[in-house]
Amino acid sequence: MRLSSRVMKISPSETLAITAKVNALRAQGRNVIGFGAGEPDFDTPVNIKRAAIKAIEAGFTKYTPVGGTDDLKDAVIVKLKRDNNLEYERSQIVVSCGAKHTLYNLAQVLLNPGDEVIIPAPYWVSYPDIVTLAEGQPVFVNTREDDGFKMSPQQLKKAITNRTRAVIINSPSNPTGAAYSPDELRSLAKVLIDKDILIISDDIYEKIFYAEFPFVNMATCVPELKDRVIVVNGVSKTYAMTGWRIGYAAGPEEIIAAISKLQSQNTSNPTSISQKAAVEALSCDQCMVDKMVSEFQKRRDYIVAALNDISGVRCFSPEGAFYVFPNVSGIYGRSSKGKKISGSPEFIDYLLDEANVAAVPGAAFGNDNHIRLSYATSLENIEEGIKRIKEAVSKLLS
Ligand code: PMP
Ligand code: GLU
Prior knowledge:
By secondary structure, the chain is an alpha/beta fold. It has helices at residues 5-8, 14-27, 46-57, 70-84, 99-110, 126-133, 153-159, 182-192, 218-221, 253-264, 272-283, 287-308, 344-355, 379-394; strands spanning 33-34, 93-96, 116-121, 137-142, 164-170, 198-202, 229-234, 247-250, 323-324, 335-336, 339-340, 357-358, 360-361, 371-374. α7 packs parallel to α8 and α12 (287-308) runs parallel beside α14 (379-394). The protein starts with a helix and ends with a helix. Glutamic acid (GLU) is lined by residues 13, 15-16, 37-39, 100, 124-126, 174.
């Protein structure tokens, strides 16, 4: 079968592939502990589900305006003012089918062939392929573990060329959990201020935040840059609503209108029912978010300490999101049954075969010395999973 060269240039999302593999193994009866899926294990809060049921019963089951209903846009506007001190008009908001779709749309409306997008590495698996699909050129900036996986102003400056169209900032980050402080963002802003470069601020993990400093994005932190920032967010992670598929962008009217135009020729509106649920999520009492976050924080504390206790593993303590990204390169070179572990994919295969534990190779995020574990699973599972990893590592021969 002849397929487009466009689709041949990308790979399937590795995070989703691992989740599917775990589900298939479980269906065969294998007792796999899954650290793969990047989705909260909590159920969607009941008031949010009720809003959706009410929408169905009221017959709110037809097309809506392409870029989202006015009530959802208004809820997003209130949220951005309340949480981020940012002011927008309805014409500056567009709702899509998840933040991944928002990012895809953004790349499609912003990039011409060869336009460069700066992506700090380690990066979320989908950024490079989203850019590639729009015929853009990902430009990676390799952040250092010793710098807390944060891009320095010097690194940013070096990566900029006359083809740079945008830089993606994902704080807290998937996969590292690193979060930029207001001062760190201000120093990056100094590099960007006199350049014609857009800033895509992927704030999807905004609320899953443990740092001492407050969460800020570039638009809030450096108001002079606000007109060049596109804030991307959604309800998947904050409200345990991954399956509902609602994400949104806030930014310059021209870009938002272009996304709406594009969306009118592909998905049309995001699901009407999910939009009603998202209004409830963004507008209701937010205390359930705090409960989820304090549970995530307990798990983070446990998993970081437990991983650091394994020989050959070194784990950075994340400031947000629900991932740990331990350095496992101390294990590379060891072997099992004549097979050498020479990188993150081999180590991940070994863990699945030997310990029935699933995680994602760091290579998928642009750093082969690491693996990613999602701790969006119960503390019991985490304890059992880490015990299995420790035993499996101890069986490896140096
Ligand atoms: N950005 C990052 C960094 C993510 O980890 C995810 C997770 N899927 C997304 C965006 C997209 O989330 P969703 O499409 O579920 O809104
Ligand atoms: N973002 C989550 C992850 O990284 C969900 C899967 C995906 O869309 O990549 O695991």
